[in-house]
Amino acid sequence: MGSQTLRQKYRQELRRTILEAAREAFEQGGYESLSMRNLAERIGCSHGSIYLHFKDKEELFDCLVEESFAGLAEVLAALRPPGKKIDPVVLLRKAGRAYVEFGLRNPGAYEFAFVLRRPGAAHPEKPHHAYKLLRGVVAQCIAEKRFRRISIDMASQVLWATVHGITSLLIFRPNFPWADKKKLIARVIDNAAAGLLAESPG
Amino acid sequence: MGSQTLRQKYRQELRRTILEAAREAFEQGGYESLSMRNLAERIGCSHGSIYLHFKDKEELFDCLVEESFAGLAEVLAALRPPGKKIDPVVLLRKAGRAYVEFGLRNPGAYEFAFVLRRPGAAHPEKPHHAYKLLRGVVAQCIAEKRFRRISIDMASQVLWATVHGITSLLIFRPNFPWADKKKLIARVIDNAAAGLLAESPG
DNA sequence: AGCTTTTTCTGACCACTGGTCAGTATTCTA
DNA sequence: TAGAATACTGACCAGTGGTCAGAAAAAGCT
């Protein structure tokens, strides 16, 4: 037990070291920018060793993405104040801002999750956790008649497309002469939400 | 003269052959998927020859992107019926649909133009032609008081972000369980435009 | 015609990539 | 301490983008 623990402890430590070094480099220049050899050199082991912990580059970055997105899901879930009932439309706007902010803070993970083409994969691609959370709030908006008649998925996808648009443009075209970025983000989100609202009563 | 012409004719022909073969391959799997060697093999020349016509891979694909986007600009410009005055908001919606359609038809060019990270470039990135066209129509919407008070660039960027969002998601996540794609595109665009409108008079 | 210059083109070469694997070094077990 | 299990290295593979000396071909000139 204790003996095995020592070995496994080292193993876990190296795994974390790899992940952290990878995250750092990876968030700078994106997926293609970092090589396994380069990564190994930073850590101080042979590049072969990395493959003892991760099947390939994709799996390594998949791990990072998963970690990052667990963080996003947490952030989104925490937006709903416990106990208090919150206007779902307000919640949606808050979630939108949190989503964009997350993307800008984790551009590498964002790129990998939503932008990178996976050469092999023709898999049907299940909706991710964040999408399900979004869908839940949208369902509430529709159930409470805050939204006009529209299907849950249609509304959710309209909103996702919108926040993804501003997020990815700000990540990948950072040197474009943007108007004030904060205001722009807010405008984009408000705009998308407003369009889905039911005619204001009265 | 005539002698030089013969040589240059061959040269131009090869150039076009390269571009066309590149476009075909490139539109399938994106920038990273195609190698210069592979390309040369398809054409039937050594990969070194390609560098006689294009400085590097980036320049080659830059040419393709330019060609594609010239096409987009044409399509957008042609939307305005000659002579007739057209409601600028209607025009905007039409342009939005044309933009998305263009992206879906030229995913490779779209990827290169708006998504790929250029490792070297920290250049300020001038707005492209299509953006300027968009800006013109938006300016008209504002001048004619069809839009609420908002700066031209802010409104233009809100619209661009929106159409980019749906375009890039449909390109890069084609296997997501989308609602009806056509309707979704229309909803996204209408939604964005609606949010910018002035309160309906009366 | 020939001879020379200019242009086109090839294939070997460079440093790099992701990934594998036989052989070695280390650690655990008994 | 001997033997089994694990961790690790570094050479190796096929591929990448890009370069360049030298071969081949075309053009210009007398």
How is this fold's topology laid out?
The structure is a homodimer of 202-residue chains.
Chain A: H1 2-29, H2 36-43, H3 47-53, H4 57-79, H5 88-105, H6 107-114, H7 129-143, H8 152-172, H9 181-196
The first copy, chain A, binds a DNA duplex (30 and 30 nucleotides) through residues 3-4, 6-7, 10-11, 14, 35-37, 45-49, 51-52, 56-57.
Question: In words, what does this structure look like?
Answer:
The structure is a homodimer of 202-residue chains. With 202 residues, chain A is mainly alpha-helical. Chain A is 71% helix and 0% strand. Chain A has helices spanning 2-29, 36-43, 47-53, 57-79, 88-105, 107-114, 129-143, 152-172, 181-196. In chain A, helix 1 packs across helix 2 and helix 5 runs antiparallel to helix 9 (181-196). The longest helix of chain A is centred in the N-terminal third of the chain and has 28 residues, at 2-29. The radius of gyration of chain A is 20 Å and the shape is elongated. The mean pLDDT of chain A is 91. Chain A binds a DNA duplex (30 and 30 nucleotides) through helix 1 and helix 3.
A few lines on this structure:
Chain A has 202 residues and is an all-alpha fold. The first copy, chain A, has nine helices and no strands. In chain A, α1 crosses α2 (36-43).
Q: Which descriptors apply to this entry?
A:
9 helices, DNA-binding, 202 residues, elongated, mainly alpha, homodimer, 0% strand
Task: Please report the total strand number of chain A as a whole number.
Answer: 0
How many DSSP H or I helices of chain A? 9
Could you give the distance between the termini of chain A?
A: 71 Å
Q: Globular, elongated, flat, extended or rod-shaped: what is the shape of chain A?
A: elongated
Low-confidence stretches of chain A: none
Percent helix range of chain A: over 70%
Order of helices and strands of chain A: HHHHHHHHH
Q: What do the pLDDT scores of chain A average to?
A: 91
Structural class call of chain A reads mainly alpha
Instruction: Kindly estimate the percentage of residues of chain A that lie in beta strands according to DSSP.
Output: under 5%
Oligomer: homodimer
Major beta sheet summary of chain A? none
User: Which pair of chains forms the biggest interface, and how many residues does each contribute?
Assistant: A-B, 49 and 49 residues
The Rg value of chain A, from CA coordinates, equals 20 Å
